[in-house]
Amino acid sequence: MSRTIGVAVGIPEPWATQLNRARHEAGDPLAASVPSHITLLPPTEVPDADRRAVEQHLREAASRHRPFELHLRGTGTFRPITDVVFVAVATGISECELLEADIRRGPLGRELRFPYHPHVTVAHDVGPAALDGAYDGLSDFDARFTVRGFTLFEHGRDGRWRPEQEFPFGGA
User: Fold this and answer.
1) What is the structure's pLDDT at 172?
2) Average pLDDT of each block of 10 consecutive residues along the chain (172 residues)?
3) Which H or E run contains 18?
4) In terms of CB atoms within 10 Å, which of 59, 112, 133, 159 comes out highest?
């Protein structure tokens, strides 16, 4: 058997609620099942037999990183490549890139469909008007917080992503 996992930096309150609400208002079909986050490992199928190796790999990866400041500011889009609007990472891009590369090795090594670009999705696979509304509605979004680790998520049979385990950074 296997399970589908993902690894992400969660967005803290009060911003998580604001971003979740914006995604819901855009009509994004995943709004209720995907918490606001910055992806570090996209959905990845992992055999159950590899669970301990994956958790050990994530512990080791976390131990090699230190807390960092993340600044989310304004919006961006991947249109016309994909119908996605996101909140942009203004500060902390390099730290996210290094962390993502460290996580996506060993038992979690995999090719990516697109180059890694840290962001918080707020509208995906909705019509042009909804994409434009999300883009304009969050254009002045601004949040700053310290990232102290990352979370392993599991995709449930009900389609929801649930946090399974926290991995604090070394020195966190």
Assistant:
1) 55
2) 96 97 96 95 95 97 97 95 95 98 94 92 96 97 98 94 96 60
3) helix 15-25
4) 133
Tell me yes or no: is domain 2-168 CATH 3.90.1140.10: yes
Tokens of 168: 């604090």
Does residue 14 have a cis peptide bond before it, meaning omega lies within 30 degrees of 0? Answer: yes
Q: How far apart are CA 95 and CA 62, in angstroms?
A: 12
The string of DSSP codes covering 46-75 is EEGGGHHHHHHHHHHHHHT---EEEEEEEE
Under 8 Å CB-to-CB from 161, ≥6 apart: which residues? 6, 33, 34, 35, 153, 154, 155
The predicted-structure confidence for 74-93, as pLDDT tens digits, reads as follows 999 999 889 999 999 999 99
Rg (CA), the chain: 16
